[in-house]
Amino acid sequence: MTNKGYEEKNLYTEHVVLKSSTTETNSWTDNAIDVSRYNTAIIIVDITAFDRTDLDELLTLEVEISYDNTNFIHRFTIVDEENEGDLVTTSGDPDRGKLKTTGTYTAFLNGDIGKYLRTKGTLEGTTPSVTLSIVCLLR
Questions:
Q1: DSSP label at 94?
Q2: pLDDT digit string, tens, across residues 80-122
Q3: What CATH number should be reported for the domain holding residue 99?
Q4: In which domain, by residue range, is 113 found?
């Protein structure tokens, strides 16, 4: 008989808080974390409040990686899959996939996750305000 709780606890070897619960009203870039010992990362974003007073407020949340902790490159954009639509086409709603509601969003990175990893948020709109926390599970 296996101890399922023990297996789940050891599935990921490190749990790092990238952003404690905070309210952002401007775009931001979080501090990078050293991920050089790992090859898999799961980014979990929990948005608990989103001010959409003018209905034009949006959040683009990117995961960036670096090999020298100075030059970062875009690795992944966390999207709202229910609002994603066809991201391949250039026609249609330019805001498709951008975050605009409360909820939990995830990004899974496997293989090349760089030596350093960080998140970057770009807020758009008339009066943007988002309350969120971001954690990273590493293996």
A1: T
A2: 766 544 333 334 556 666 888 899 998 889 888 999 999 999 9
A3: 2.60.120.380
A4: 4-138
Round to whole Å and give the CA distance between 42 and 105. Answer: 10
DSSP string, 74-86: EEEEE--GGGT--
Residue 22 has pLDDT above 60, yes or no: yes
Looking at the structure of the chain, the number of domains it has is 1
* Residue with token string 């969003």: 105
More confident residue, 86 or 62: 62
Query: Given pLDDT bands bounded at 50, 70 and 90, which one contains residue 11?
Result: low
Specify the 3-state DSSP secondary structure of 54.
coil
CB of 17 within 8 A of CB of 102? Answer: no
The reported pLDDT for the residue numbered 33 is 96
Phi, psi of 81 (to 5 degrees): -60, -30
| Cα–Cα distance, 105 to 30 (Å, whole number) | 17
> CA angle, 33 as apex, 32 and 36 as ends, to 5°?
125
| CA quadruple 63, 76, 7, 104: dihedral sign | positive
Please give the backbone phi and psi of residue 53, each rounded to the nearest 5 degrees, phi first: -50, -45
Q: Would you state the structure tokens that stand for residue 93, as one six-digit string?
A: 């709603």
